[in-house]
Amino acid sequence: MADSNENLHRTRESTKPPMEKISRKRRGSLFMTEQDALKDTLDKGRTRRRSTVILTEHDLAGIEHREAEEEKIREEQKHITLTLRDYNLIFAMPFFCEFANCVTFVYFVIYLVEIFRLDYVTIGFFVGAFHLCRVITITGSIFYTKTAHLLGCMIGLAGFITLLCGDKSKISVFAVGNIITGFAECSSAVFVYSKNMYATDVPKMRMAMSYQSAMLGVAVIIGFYFGGMGYDKFGVDGIAVAGIIALGLEITSLLYYVLTCNEADTTCEKGLVATFPTEEKTEKETGLKVSTIAQSLQNEKLSDELFGMFSNMEGIVANSFTLLISAIFSMESIACGYLFSIGPIFMKTIFDVEEKSIGTIFSCASLLGSIGTILSISPKGRAFQKKYLRSPYNLYALIVIITCAAFGCLIPSLSVHVISVLFLIGGCQIFITLVSELQGAITTSHYYTVLGPSAQMLRRIVNVIMAVTGPIVFGVFPRLPYLISGSLCLVFSVVFVFGTEAQSRRNAKLVTEMMNSAGKDEAKQFQRMTLASRECLARISSYTMRGAKNKDTILAEAKKKDTTFTSVWENGEEEENDESA
Description:
By secondary structure, this protein is mainly alpha-helical. Helix content is 75%, strand content 1%. It has 25 helices and 2 strands. Strands 1-2 form a two-stranded antiparallel sheet. It starts with a helix and ends in a 5-residue tail after the last strand.
């Protein structure tokens, strides 16, 4: 018996896996070790075949890397502290304005058809005028953000008051009251506020813009549901009262934000007037050192510091890829424009669905999108995307889902149509959230003041076109709008994929050239970065190359092996390593 125990002890020592950093409880859940199988055999007196999984050093490194990624994301969110002003900006302001914009959606077209018996061409112009009001507010926010935001909310509030107090039996009163509520559009403004307010705090900026997009989705859920249910129970007056309350709270939130502005915030200036730099700063003026880019690939703290300074680099100009990301916002309008324009009347005419049920379907679709958005920006969701759908592949997957759902609306089946609507609206909400975060990451604060609202403006202009042409095309053939939107989504998807892949190849070539292409480890590390990180690093590289005297000097400096760096923003010449010298 003593010999058996001694052999068992030796077996345990010889088969002990190298897993000091993994707890015994976690180790036991991962695999069955050889000594456990041997102990089971000795105790029961018979041989039992067991499948044994031995984890190699490479497997352990992969597990530790994934755990480190999740822990890093959790730590970033854990150390983000929010004040009352942050809660107001991130949660309250996006919710109230988007609710006011969506609450009139379900009943407006149906009311024009059933009560006023208008033709589809006239209805199209009315719906287009509503979206045109949103474009006007967004255009104003490019130059004077807070002023346009406040005036838009006040005009929208006047529209809801008109619906409540005016004579709704007159087409002029009803149409004008609903149309001017479109001025209450502030989604672009809140993104500008966050981009400028958290410009030097990248994790907080990313969190703020992500949760603002999520709150917009939550507002759409409640707005769609109440627009159908509230109209069914309380009529137009119920919609008007809800809009008055929402915009009253929105104006209160905006005034609180303005009154609590600090002098250091760029968003607290008198308007946000965009002026582009006329001269590019050089490397000597900024103190940015060329070879730090190569070192940042291996030094995580250094790369965070580098990306944190990216937003305030005024010398970095917008490139073609930045413009492509701004333009891709309009894909959401192409995919959902006809759905929001003729979707309710399509369901009622083709499938005989009631207003209440239509509102429920659209709210469930928005609920699906909001759940997906919250999951995608959670720590586990981000870790999952980094492992299986690293950006831009997460965006590629979404545009495929959106395109298939747009074509799915053509199928003459109510169940298939409802499923397609769920995935179309839900996919677009997640897509807009991820693209908004991407645009905020790769655009400097100076240019985001223009490109952020411009992307939303282009998106609303497409909404105007889809709203005007939707009822007209629906009158020609009911399913033709979905055929057009699906085809346009396919074109946008191809352009986006090819444009993104071409930009990735250019970035890889630029960065590896600066770091000396012989460095295979650095090149692999660059390819493992997300799309936003690769773009920022490439833009910084390009900026640094322009600031240096010539390209040969940069390549020669990158090849030096005797240089150490202590900071990204350290003035003076680089320190030399005495030992290697």
